[in-house]
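Course assignment 3, question 2. Fill in each field.
Student: A.L.
Task: Predict the tertiary structure for the chain below.
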Amino acid sequence: MPPAMARALEAGLPHPLGATARDGGVNFAVFSAHARRIELCLFDAEGREELARHPLPARSDWIWHGFLPDAGPGLVYGLRAHGPYEPEAGHRFNAHKLLLDPYARETVGRFRWGDEHHGTTLDHPEGDRALDTRDNAQAMLKARVAAPLPPAAPGPRRALADSVLYELHVKGFTRRLEALPPALRGTYAGLAHPAAIAHLLRLGVTTLSLLPVHLRLNEPRLEGLGLSNYWGYNSLAFFCPDPRFSTTPDDPTATRHEFRAMVEALHAAGLEVLIDVVYNHTAEGDERGATLSLRGLDNASYYRLLPDDRSRYENASGCGNTVDVSQPRVAQLVLDSLRYWAAEMGVDGFRFDLAPILGRGRAGFDPQAGFFATLLQDPVLAGRKLIAEPWGPGPGGYQLGRFPSPWAEWNDRFRDGLRLFWLSRGIGRGEFARRLAASSDLLHHGARAPSASVNFVAAHDGFTLADLVSYGHRHNLANGENNRDGHHANFSSNCGIEGPTTDAAVREQRARLRRALLATTLLAQGTPMLMAGDELGRTQGGNNNAYCQDNETSWLDWSAADAALRDYTAALVALRRELAVLRRDRWLTDAVRADGRRDVEWLRPQGGTMTVEDWHDDGRHAFAQLLTPSEGDVRAVLLVFNAEPQPVRFVLPEGRWERLLDSADGDARASALDGPELEAGAQSVLMLRRLL
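Answer field:
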């Protein structure tokens, strides 16, 4: 045993939390309000042999702490917490279980599921309080003390109104990209490679939104089926980059450096990096789940428990447990994690999974919750992009429009409105117009701006764009849940034939609808978001919940890319970048301005302004939006929308016009128009600009 490991710990300091190399040793600090003793367990470099145990000798304000002299980065350790095992009181301490430090930056070993991870013997009812005395150390991940990284250089810091988001999965985007060296496919380094960046720059997107990159575990059920949690929404370690995406998965230090190098390479190309974070639940599951970290350290503090039965968990996440960020030290864990990813790893912002849980108090969701207030005043996090998924499965979980400024929100009303308007004409022009105007009916309050509406028609959760117009219902049998999982209300259309077809008319209609949906997403007011591969025609074979498909179902098939659709999408992004009137971050108004113009006018196909009767005529689905800039380029822009299955003639407003886009055939070349009318093709979007 190395001499340092045999020495008793000194008192050390209660801050910062986690393991910190300092002053010729390592300081350890762990929060637990209800533990009676916390032990530090030291292991060999591979994490196989436990070499020593030391109780943390001091406690300050429920922080247990100690200092180990003559130690430093590379030290491998775990924790054991002693305390009451009283599930009915919310306590699940079990010192037979080795626990991962919640602040671990690096981990050692490979996790292996087994019954020994459970705090209670599984063949006894909960009321028997049968403590499982098996030791889980051999199958458990261990933490490794990490050397701090120097502060990351700031990224491009682009205004949200000028951003085009691009949601991607690190492995899914790079795994089949043949331009990458084989060793880099599916990795952080692969995403940083010039061949991957070249596609992003050609497309013109500004901001990558990465699916979860925190270290996660597979659910036991999935492993039993030979599947995995591919998306990554099952976090265990909030500070660790997932080694799945590393070129050196067994070297946690190299993995951290690879992630940061990826961010730096993307920044150098002018691209921002956001990460999807899952702080609403952990991989420990419900009361039948495993004791791996937070549950064993202080179950009653870290998780929301049912008030009438504290042996059970509030399941607002739908994943078995709910992290209680209303507790100050739990909120600190989340905020410390966010600061780490921003300051040391360099990320530019965050998309928060099931974000209403973060604002959940005893009386439900509160837009002024302490977590939000603390986050917004944090000097490290100030100016980072904050995007909420504003819904969740629990009671009161749907909170679209209620997040405080400067949060942005995924707008599912935009998603569903587009699908219904274009694919079934299932909504009227009034509802569609509200979505085009950045959903001002939902978001125009307080200090919020139109950019708060993150507009998308497809995301990781649901059909791809190609499948949206190819399948009438989900095809999820491969997920092992008898096709019961995934959304049932997709508002999709198979255009008359389910799945792939050689029918030329059906294929042409599907292509036409894809172009119309993309044009609406990228030309509407608000912040557009694309899902990686939609610009290439990617399909998942009708699987609308491919969370467990780490295979060709989910990986982008670059060999089958639709080059014409890619170029069309890039042209749309370029038009958005060129025309400031599409990116204005002030709410549109139809009031007459001082210059005698209006921000927006809504026009009938036969000419003239839409009337109340027009808005309530649900049998017609063609109209136009006239946008007039208030400064800079004074040329007005006209967006023409025709969701009808046949062409519609439009009378143009006064003046001479040039056509910039026609989604009917994907033409994005400027051409002057002759005459006061034009014909909008079936199911098409046109963009015109007034000539001087």
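Instructor remarks: The mean pLDDT is 95. The first strand starts at residue 18 and ends at 22.
Grade: pending
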